[in-house]
Write a structure and sequence with these properties.
The structure holds two protein chains of two kinds. Chain A is of the alpha+beta class. Chain A folds into three domains: 9-46, no CATH class; 58-107, no CATH class; 109-185, OB fold (Dihydrolipoamide Acetyltransferase, E2P). Helices cover 17% and strands 31% of the residues of chain A. Chain A has helices at residues 9-31, 64-71; strands at 35-37, 44-46, 76-80, 86-87, 102-106, 110-119, 132-138, 144-149, 162-170, 175-182. Chain B has helices at 23-38, 62-70, 86-99, 119-127, 132-139, 143-158, 162-176, 190-194, 223-229, 258-271, 293-302, 311-316, 333-336, 341-356, and strands at residues 5-12, 47-51, 76-80, 105-113, 198-201, 203-204, 213-222, 234-243, 285-287, 372-379, 384-391. Chain B contains 14 helices and eleven strands. In chain B, helix 2 links the parallel strand 2 (47-51) and strand 3. Chain B is globular and about 55 Å long. By secondary structure, chain B is of the alpha/beta class. In chain B, the strands form two sheets. Chain B has a nine-stranded mixed β-sheet with strand order 3-2-4-7-1-8-11-10-9, with helices on both faces. The chains are: A alpha+beta, B alpha/beta. Chain A binds chain B through residues 1, 9, 13, 17, 38, 40-41, 43, 45, 48, 58, 88-89, 114-127, 129, 132, 134, 136, 144-148, 159, 170, 177, and chain B through 17, 19-20, 58, 118, 120-121, 123-124, 127-128, 131, 133-136, 138-142, 144-145, 148-153, 156, 197-203, 247-251, 254. Strand 6 of chain A pairs antiparallel with strand 5 (198-201) of chain B, so a sheet runs across the interface. The complex binds zinc ion. Zinc ion is lined by residues 80, 82-83, 85, 94, 96-97, 99 of chain A.
């Protein structure tokens, strides 16, 4: 599990796309059309001349306390006042008893590692990161929490080991989130 | 009371990187084949259900694009989505329309053109298939990553190894090499699989199904209509279905897929055959959802072909090749035949119909003795599951 990468997958991909687009532009200059033969099959392709970038706006009004507390360094979630059901991720409504009267409770910051993986081939929007480890940890409350794992030596990770939750700033986006670290570190 | 429903025609395009066709042309390959097989014309089809997930491809409303190109307009239609199990969902809806008496003939058409977008974009779309905000946005999980979480937990609990997982890839490539419609028609060795690079540790390149374009179609008819159309109807005996949480973290155990287990139990109950962990004995052949090698291992267990924790031993013992307890994925499976998301489930039913009718290539034809076959189709990471049982015998006689 190597963590070091000199050139990010994003830089590689962006470079490839730039070269490809320059090629299509040159075809368009000579033909008057954005068409080109597929590299493998030779079949004629049209390069889309319309494109969009998409970014969603998601309401967190119903669970804003989670983020307010995260800023204060606290890790909280919702518990139904009526039936006692604990939810993570936090939710505004309790489908179990169909009431919407929740209280915010603090969660344990230590748990047991249930499973983990290292993401080597990344989605485009994560392709600027080095390979990262994602794990699921079970808290004593019986709640599971998915997050990145920060480990000095990933080869020492083991299912069942104790993990500690830390509230951190995610770089380079620079927003507050949480991650797991081995309890020993 | 529900009516019996039979498959009267199937079609299946070549799967692969299909840069030679657009979406309408790709769908037509399967639709024309299915019409020909059934001896029907477009006017005979009363409703067409289209399974396609999309996002990576240009057509936002594939059902009407396919309808127009294939001459199915103005028949009623809808696109359905159940992630990688969309195809089985389409078969289920077409089945219900016929079984209920709403129509006599309906078709399910599966289609995906994934290679209209570059790979990192496709990886992004599939990675978002779970809970977007709490899993993808913050932690960048990918489709191989979700299944890798299962692989890590499974290997730790039961002592299976990366070699064991690779055995599923070796088997499915072996049969893919014998299927002219498969994306990969080349055998791979255990060494080649083991030495391939990690995609999401512990899953390697050869543990993963490829990004594939393809289409498939099945035409369903009521029992009475089927009897008029063909001497060899293949009956849909049962369809079990279930779902699981969007967030993987809401699940208790990462060594099996609860939705698949429930869907299998439901299908076995419908067929009246639920007993023990040797369920393979009821079937001649199975197509299971091997989007990743670990998924094939869990499929054996969730289908009760083995006890929990012993699925990988079936691979070690070669029990899922022709001649073993039950041949699995003689098409090459998602691993080698390819996984055009929306087409996969319909393609499984088309493949098993051809297996039961003994019309696939000889070196990948299962011996047909019991007259029953089973399809296991999972959507997302166990988010959706459908288990479909096909039979040469009419369910209600
Ligand atoms: Zn409640």
């Amino acid at each position: 599990m190597s963590r070091e990468e000199k050139v990010s997958q994003r830089e590689l991909f962006d470079k490839q796309m730039k070269e490809f687009e320059e090629f299509v532009e040159s075809m368009k200059d000579s033909l008057g059309l954005p068409t080109f033969p597929d590299m493998k099959s030779g079949a004629l392709q049209w390069y889309d001349q319309r494109w969009i970038t998409t970014r969603f706006v998601i309401s967190v009004e119903g669970i804003k306390e989670f983020f307010d507390k995260l800023i204060d360094g606290k890790f909280v979630t919702t518990k139904c006042k009526s039936c006692g059901e604990l939810y993570f991720p936090p939710q505004k409504d309790c489908p179990k008893c169909r009431k919407s009267d929740m209280e915010w409770v603090e969660l344990s910051r230590e748990g047991e590692l249930l499973t983990y993986t290292q993401i080597n081939v990344k989605p485009y929007s994560f392709s600027h990161y080095d390979d990262y480890i994602v794990g699921i940890v079970r808290l004593p409350e019986g709640i599971n929490v998915t997050a990145w794992i920060r480990a000095d030596d990933p080869s020492k990770l083991q299912i069942g080991m104790k993990m500690r939750l830390e509230i951190v700033r995610r770089k380079p986006e620079n927003y507050i989130t949480y991650e797991w670290v081995p309890a020993e570190e | 009371m529900a009516r019996d429903v039979a498959i009267v025609g199937v079609g299946h395009s070549r799967y692969g990187v299909r840069s030679d066709v657009n979406i309408g042309e790709l769908a037509w390959e399967s639709i024309s084949m299915a019409l020909e097989d059934a001896g029907l014309e477009q006017k005979d089809i009363e409703y067409f259900v289209v399974s396609s997930v999309g996002g990576w491809s240009s057509e936002y409303l594939p059902a009407v694009v396919i309808g127009e190109y294939s001459g199915l307009t103005p028949k009623g239609t809808a696109r359905v989505e159940a992630a990688c199990a969309s195809g089985s969902a389409a078969v289920k809806l077409a089945y219900d329309m016929v079984a209920s008496g709403s129509v006599d003939i309906a078709t399910a058409i599966g289609l995906e053109k994934m290679n209209e977008s570059p790979t990192p974009t496709v990886v992004e779309f599939i990675g978002r298939a779970g809970n977007y905000f709490w899993e993808f946005h913050n932690f960048g999980l990918t489709f191989p990553g979700y299944y890798a979480l299962y692989a890590t937990a499974y290997m730790d609990r039961y002592g299976a190894t990366e070699e064991d997982l690779c055995l599923a890839a070796v088997k499915n490539h072996y049969y893919g090499a014998r299927n002219p419609k498969a994306h990969f028609q080349k055998e791979v060795t255990l060494e080649k699989c083991m030495s391939s690079r990690y995609i999401a540790w512990p899953l390697k390149l050869y543990d993963c199904s490829p990004i594939t374009d393809g289409s498939s179609a099945v035409i369903l008819a009521s029992g009475e209509v089927a009897r008029e159309l063909t001497d060899t109807p293949v009956w849909i005996e049962a369809i079990g279905h279930a779902s699981d949480t969007a967030n993987l973290s809401k699940r208790d155990d990462f060594t099996y897929l609860r939705a698949a287990r429930l869907a299998a139990e439901q299908a076995y109950m419908q067929a009246g055959i639920l007993d023990g962990y040797e369920m393979y004995k009821y079937f001649d052949v199975a197509e299971v959802h091997d989007c990743f090698t670990i998924a094939e291992v869990m499929a054996y267990e969730d289908l009760r072909f083995s006890k929990p924790g012993e699925g990988y031993k079936m691979l070690r013992d070669g029990e899922t090749y022709i001649g073993g307890k039950i041949p699995v994925n003689l098409s090459g499976g998602l691993k080698a035949k390819g996984h055009p998301i929306g087409a996969t489930g319909v393609g499984m039913v088309a493949e098993l119909t051809n297996q039961l009718l003994q019309r696939v290539e000889k070196d990948r034809q299962a011996p047909i003795e019991k007259g029953r076959a089973i399809a296991h189709n999972v959507g997302g990471t166990g988010h959706y599951a459908y288990v479909t049982i096909l039979s040469l015998d009419r369910p209600r006689g």
